[in-house]
Amino acid sequence: MKKTMTALILSALLVGPALGAFAGGAREETGWPSRDVRYVVPYAPGGLSDVTARMIERAVREENLLEKAFVITNIAGASAGNAMEEVVAAPPDGYLLLHHHTSFISHKALGVRDWGHEEFTPIAMLFEVPQAAFALPGRWENLDEWIDHVRTNPGETTFAGSSLGGGTHLMGEMLLEAAGIRDDLRYVAHGGGGPMTTAILAGEDLMGLTQLPTVLGDHLSGDFEILAVSSAERVSSLPDVPTFGELGYEIPLQTSHRMGVWGPPGMDPELVNQIAEFFGMVVNSDTFRELAAQNGLFVRFEDGEGLRRDFDRDEEIIMGLVEEFGLN
To answer: Domains along the chain?
Structure first.
């Protein structure tokens, strides 16, 4: 089975220091960077966060965007908590940064911890990751057919996901609610993307939902068929696949994962602006945009205030959904 994310991991791991010259114009005033920058991924190698961080490193290295090494550091454990604790306690000098997404909010909403993004300095929004509803090829003509099947056979089918209580689970609940079938089937959390896709291949579940990069390669190879995506607009690499909204299923959030860059509290605003400018150059580079298009990411750069604003708004929505769906 072709695995786009696996191939990307292998190519990204063949890296050396990312050297070059950051043309931000403020280095003389802030001194950043005068040494290597550690970019912390709060999960183990191989998942969405790790792969996309290595996409950033590859763009930095290939386009010579930084004069010091840009080093990916995986600090896994405690549902991202180990990495969060290390970064929040670091000196506010811009040399230890966190690559983290909307799970900040869902973990807080579900009681994993009682603190989140508000404890960090928001630096930049990078991109959004849509979700994809998928099944075996030819099993359903479209998403509507599967929804009609659920309606006419209540209680007899399941909806597969990778985990319980995370962003993908919340997106699944939103879709089922919008389709009016939330009480007609059971959501099954398989504990990871691999077990989930295995269950669908075995016919245990007839439909699944996952982050688009996880299944995009399998769709393109013909192993799975993506029937719809959660994004507000169609994915450029999937021009024939409709969005949930196009099919009439309006959901409060079109993405379950907004990826941002976060620093320790108390960072100097001038330094924050310089680092944000650097990441803007990265995600708008030809290298990163090509990788993003291949993997179904929507580049959406904003500065720190935009990142904070988006997360504050998402937190209000997600807290309400967790309460509405009884997931707390």
So the answer is: 4-129+255-324 (3.40.190.150), 131-229 (3.40.190.10)
